[in-house]
Design goal:
With about 270 residues, this protein is α/β, with parallel strands linked by helices. It folds into two domains: about 140 residues, Rossmann fold (3-Layer(aba) Sandwich); about 120 residues, Rossmann fold. The protein contains eleven helices and ten strands. α11 links the parallel β9 and β10. The radius of gyration is 18 Å and the shape is globular. About 50% of the residues are buried.
Length: about 270
């Protein structure tokens, strides 16, 4: 059997393309349908009620396109709206928070015993930090561990501008990450899908032994485990990726190319009901 229906991915903008890229590498035969709600970004500054309303509308559009699974490739939407999305979804659903939390704990458990008492640091947007989504997820898995939430709001525009390894990015990283180093955190979760683009700058601002957890990679691994054999697309040429956006511009195309690491496919402009 082969199920050719696409896997749907949703984000408030283009940051979730890091998740799409990770999924495409692990599941190269699958068709992927990505929706970026670019007309309403950023979600990180919106109220929880607004994020929940926007997220349900966006996922509703993906469901209307016949997706066989949904990936909420947005930390803010996962933190604030995953339960609301689950109410309307009857296909496998995965967000980015729990996979990142599980990956952090796996790495922490493999460290020398003397290092396991250090807090897990989470770098995220202000909305994700305020929700303590990663903290709740980590404590639900193992209540012994402490979590240090650090808001890094400038990382998002730096990633979109392509300023990921210049003096401005290095100065922001030094400012934001000083508490992480002071706390002795050995495991740091990149709790925003934009942040992998700044991975080298973030790593350089932390002690050399620090381990970074890419929530995009962890989410792709979780999707592979969640997708039952009968839902897989088997045979034929490689999968096709289709990108939907609620607002389009030439700048958006350039930013999307940065996140994908290649020229973005044509962007289909859609409107949410």
């Amino acid at each position: 059997m082969s199920d050719a229906r696409p896997i749907g991915l949703f984000d408030s903008g283009v940051g979730g393309l890091t998740v799409l890229d990770a999924v495409a590498r692990r599941l190269p035969d699958e068709n992927l349908l990505y929706l970026g709600d670019t007309a309403r970004l950023p979600y990180g500054t919106k109220s929880p009620e607004t994020v929940r309303r926007y997220a349900r509308r966006a996922v509703g559009l993906l469901l209307s396109r016949g997706v066989k699974a949904v990936v909420v490739a947005c930390n803010t939407a996962t933190a604030l709206a995953l339960d609301a999305i689950a109410e309307i979804v009857d296909v496998p659903l995965v967000g980015v928070v729990e996979p990142g939390a599980r990956a952090a704990l796996r790495v922490l458990s493999a460290l020398p015993e003397a290092d396991r008492g250090a807090p897990v640091a989470v770098l995220a947007t202000e909305a994700t930090v305020a929700s303590d989504a990663y903290g709740r997820a980590i404590r639900a898995l193992d209540p012994r561990h402490r979590v240090l939430n650090v808001a890094c709001p400038l990382f998002v525009p730096l990633a979109e501008e392509g300023w990921t390894e210049n003096e401005v990015a290095r100065a922001a990283a030094a400012r934001y990450l000083a508490p992480v180093a002071d706390a002795g955190a050995r495991v740091v979760v990149l709790g925003c899908t934009h942040y992998p683009l700044l991975k080298r700058t973030i790593a350089a601002a932390l002690p050399p032994a620090t381990i970074l957890i890419d929530s995009a990679e962890a989410t792709a691994e979780a999707l592979v485990s969640l997708l039952a054999p009968e839902l897989r697309r088997n045979g034929g040429p490689g999968g096709v990726t289709h990108l939907l956006v609620t607002d389009s511009s030439e700048r958006l195309r350039r930013v999307a190319a940065r996140f994908l690491g290649r020229e973005a496919a044509a962007l289909e402009l859609v409107d949410l009901p």
